[in-house]
Amino acid sequence: MKSVTDSFLSLGHWPFARSFGFNTDILATNPINLSVVIGVLIFFGKGVLSDLLDNRKQRILNTIRNSEELRGGAIEQLERARARLREVETEADQFRVNGYSEIEQEKWNLINSTYKTLEQLENYKNETLQFEQQRAINQVRQRVFQQALQGALGTLNSCLDNELHLRTITANIGMLGAMKEITD
Questions:
Q1: Arithmetic mean of pLDDT, 109-129
Q2: Which of 56, 117, 118, 176 could cross-link 136 (Cys pair, CB 3.0–4.6 Å)?
Q3: What is the pLDDT of residues 141-182, one digit of tens each?
Q4: How many whole angstroms separate alpha carbon 31 and alpha carbon 180?
């Protein structure tokens, strides 16, 4: 019976049984706080981020489809230009004696114009894709920042009691006063 009593008495001498209080060791608490904040952000922001990325993906796919349609139109224009080129070449055979150089110049102008149009359409497609991707990234960043800020403010508001709040305000006022004295 004595050994049972001794075991209960030894429980009272735990080295971990200290009073509750704030841990002011910055090196020990910051990694814990950061891991909690990051975990909360990942847990709550995962669905929103996934939805944003899915919406963004659909917009980008629509933009790609539109660009492909424009490309198809450009290819049709190229085919028409090639058909026109064949017509011009036929006419060139007929009028070779009268103005071969003039017809040749028209042919190259037509080809150059078509290639420039294709390059412009391709550049437009690439610029549109880059713009949409950058806009999506900026929207995601902004949304994550807002959620992190709201979470941090919620955590701060739930953790601060009146006494701690007044001490923080007093300490900040003291620091501002000291900064003012230094600048004066």
A1: 90
A2: 56
A3: 999 989 988 887 787 777 767 777 788 889 889 888 888 788
A4: 33
Which residue from 31, 43, 44, 116 is spatially nearest to 81, judged by alpha carbons? Answer: 116
- What is the pTM assigned to this prediction? 0.31
CA–CA separation, 54 vs 89, rounded Å? 51
Residues with Cβ within 8 Å of 37's Cβ and at least 6 positions away in sequence, in order, are: 148, 151, 152, 155
CA distances to 22, 32, 120, 167 from 145, rounded to whole Å, are: 28, 20, 37, 28
Q: Which residues of 63-93 are buried (b: 16+ CB within 10 A; e: fewer)?
A: beeebeeeeeebeeebeebeeebeebeeebe
| Residue that has been written with the tokens 């020990």 in this structure | 28
Locate the domains of the chain by residue range: 33-142
Q: How many CB atoms lie within 10 A of CB 114?
A: 19
- The tokens of 26 are what? 């910055």
pLDDT digits (tens, 9 = 90+) for 35-93: 888 888 888 878 887 888 899 999 999 999 998 998 888 899 989 989 998 888 888 77
